[in-house]
Here is the input.
Amino acid sequence: MIKKQIFHRKRLVLFLFCFLAMITVYAQNEKLSILKIPKTPPSGYESILTTKLNKPLRPGAAYEIGFWIFGKQLPDQSYSYPITVFPSSNDIVSNGISDIVESVQSSPKLEVNPPPSFSTRGHFTFIIRPDRIYDHLTIALDNTDNKPSSINFEKDITVIGVFAKPLPNRAKEKTLPSKTTRVIKPIIPKKIAERTLINSNKSYSVSESDVQLGLYDHRRMDNDIVTVYLNGEVAIEHVQLKREKQFFNLALQPGENIITLHAENLGEVAPNTSAIIIKTKTNEFMAILESDLGQSSYFKLMCEN
Here is the structure.
């Protein structure tokens, strides 16, 4: 009897928490309109909800996307589905989505367990860096294994409190260095470790010399191994790329810095492709680099402290 009372109290606390969260988020986003029928997702995905944005997502900016998602509990069975966000203007296209959509949580999943347990997480956040104008967002679940599901995706999964807000760009404007500041511009060699260097034509600016560099495989997991060079010197050596982000500390020199991705193998599918994140206390950038056994890609990172 006591256990049953505790169980019902827990359910009440969870309900009140979710209800308050829903009210708070809805109050901030009361004008977002939800399509009665979600947009059709790519094959292997199940659309849960599509919302029309008040203001479209535009290239050159980054946006934080957040929402709550819950699934119906089954009496004696658990289920789990990866969560994906698809920005769109007309039809949903999956090609290149992994280059512009990034999850704040590692491997976001809707995980629902039978009573007395509950879903392991309800709220999820994504970062979108649009490559074109998007005015719709669709939250979907990955069901690419096509296994029979014990739930009805349309009736048993609920998404609430969707919001989209631009992230502030806190990067400092470029200024000329003072006479006492020593600005270094490294000489870019033609080769590193017998590999021809290829300029990715990507360039970013930060206002701090101490940054974190993150590595992860943003596409197919195929056992890629990479080494990262900073200004021609090994900074991060022999890292096997995983779905989860792995972060390392880097100390930049004033002025221009060269970040080079060196492929130690080709994995199962060539070329070796890695998502690289540069994170400071006030800003974050992501670059996608490709390298093989003949050439290594690099980008420039300006330190303006």
